[in-house]
Amino acid sequence: MSHPNWKRVVIKVGSALISPNQQGCSSHYLLSIAQFIVRCRANGTQVVLVSSGSVAAGAHLFPEQEKSDIAVKKAMAAAGQTEMIATWDRLFDFPSAQMLLTHADLRDRERYVSIRETIFSLLDNNILPIVNENDTVTTDKLKVGDNDNLSAMVASAAEADALIICSDIDGLYDKNPHEHDDAKLLKSVNTIDQSIYDMAGGAVKGGVGTGGMRTKIEAAEKAVSHGIDTYIINGFTELSFNMLLAGENPGTHFVPHAKPMQENVHWMRHTSNAQGEVIVEGDFDASLDSDAEQLTSSEIIDVKGEFSVGDTILVRKEDGTKLVKAKSNYSSCLLNFIANQENEEFAHEFEEKTGPIISDQHIANLEKE
Ligand SMILES: Nc1ncnc2c1ncn2[C@@H]1O[C@H](COP(=O)(O)OP(=O)(O)O)[C@@H](O)[C@H]1O
Ligand SMILES: N[C@@H](CCC(=O)OP(=O)(O)O)C(=O)O
């Protein structure tokens, strides 16, 4: 876990650190984070910054408006984003670059690959990528929704060794310490299961944070399955960063999987969204192997939703058991047509000619969730 071994890290900074009073941006807490970034780079560690705070930073420009109104929030984000980037940029004597992403970008394989290339190209040229969600264009369907999950997706895309989530609290406690005086800090988490999720509450009501601990655990789960060391640390104190640089754990460390998922399987599982569902009989045991069992139309009971060739679909059993997520080589329309064929020989010949229903190159086994 010692810091000098990291080739690349992603640092996620929450809104409370950027705009503690919602009166624009403050560099008060950002100075020690910037110092950490500078020292990482001096040690030869590449850094990608995922920064929240555009909504919080822009809030003061809309004094008369209802802050929960979506259109107002988007306007706050648009206005606050420039101030947030300018505040970071002032703290560095090297160039930074703004990357505004949505889930619609990350779940599209082509755009995802393009995002990866841009990150690598910026890093190769010693430019600091500063990523945020593109709040002004998102809708419920298109957004990641919180920067904890976004930072895990970015860490996977960037092939980072570590993800450091800077929060307003020392790490993950066994219960919300703002509500329970006897809450205890977990120094290390080996396995993220339901008992870990049960410890997490949401963000403080009326505060500037979005996801609370739940989204940080979701992020950690995504990252560790890609072999990424993940930390939740207190970003208010400089000591956290000094400890990280000394190879010590200042908060909660989520231990990465010893056998990380392959990059494209990880993307399919944790970043891509299923556009539709195919309900099948029995267990369909998928694997990333062209000799593996193929899904055939005779096993399909139902096709749900509308999807096109190349979209990700979820293959599940009638009882709801999720089997695999995969790229579909058929549209929902064509799959419905072939699955409803009474002439099995025709269906079989059609599939032989058209090729496998789901791609054996883009598939993630869901371990019968
Ligand atoms: N088990 C827990 N351990 C630590 N914090 C928790 C827990 N459950 C809920 N929280 C809340 O999560 C908050 C941190 O998340 P959030 O407000 O979204 O901040 P950020 O801006 O850093 O993302 C904490 O301040 C705390 O109120
Ligand atoms: N994209 C939003 C960030 C949303 C978010 O996840 O905030 P936080 O919980 O403070 O990390 C913004 O810039 O305000």
TrEMBL record:
Q: What is its main location?
A: cytoplasm
Q: Name one GO biological process term.
A: L-proline biosynthetic process
**All residue ranges annotated as the Aspartate/glutamate/uridylate kinase domain in the record:** 7-234
Q: List the subcellular locations.
A: Cytoplasm
Which sites bind substrate? Answer: S52, D135, N147
Keyword terms, alphabetized = Amino-acid biosynthesis, ATP-binding, Cytoplasm, Kinase, Nucleotide-binding, Proline biosynthesis, Transferase
EC top class named in words:
transferase
A Pfam match is AA_kinase
User: Recorded GO terms, molecular function?
Assistant: ATP binding; glutamate 5-kinase activity; RNA binding
Superkingdom, taxonomy of origin = Bacteria
The EC designation for this entry is 2.7.2.11
Report the family membership: Belongs to the glutamate 5-kinase family.
Q: What's this protein's name?
A: Glutamate 5-kinase
> Which organism does this sequence originate in?
Alteromonas portus
Q: What is the lineage of its organism?
A: Bacteria, Pseudomonadati, Pseudomonadota, Gammaproteobacteria, Alteromonadales
Protein encoded by which gene: proB
